[in-house]
């Protein structure tokens, strides 16, 4: 017996407390909906805490973060590695076919909680 493929509701998630977002791995169903290839970089913003640094910066739920600085991120482990220890973030955020850069300044390095 094999495990079923990850779907949006059971995808591994990372709560980025100081930024105020929860990101999750891209699943095949989300990649199909967004017309993305399996090798395309992205983590999905699953939720944004109202009033958080991410919210103030304009990040919205269901947007995709494809790069942190110049580093492409393909999963939440790469996202965590690319953001650990940083107090300034430059995120390339994508919503459907539109990309934009979001800059966020933090008071301290980020803390994380895996779900």
Automatic annotation (TrEMBL):
Source organism of the structure: bioreactor metagenome
SUPFAM superfamilies the UniProt entry points to: PDZ domain-like
Record-annotated PDZ domain positions: 17-97
Pfam families membership: PDZ
Biological classification of the source: unclassified sequences, metagenomes, ecological metagenomes
InterPro entries xrefs: PDZ, PDZ_sf
Protein name: PDZ domain-containing protein
SMART domains, per the entry: PDZ
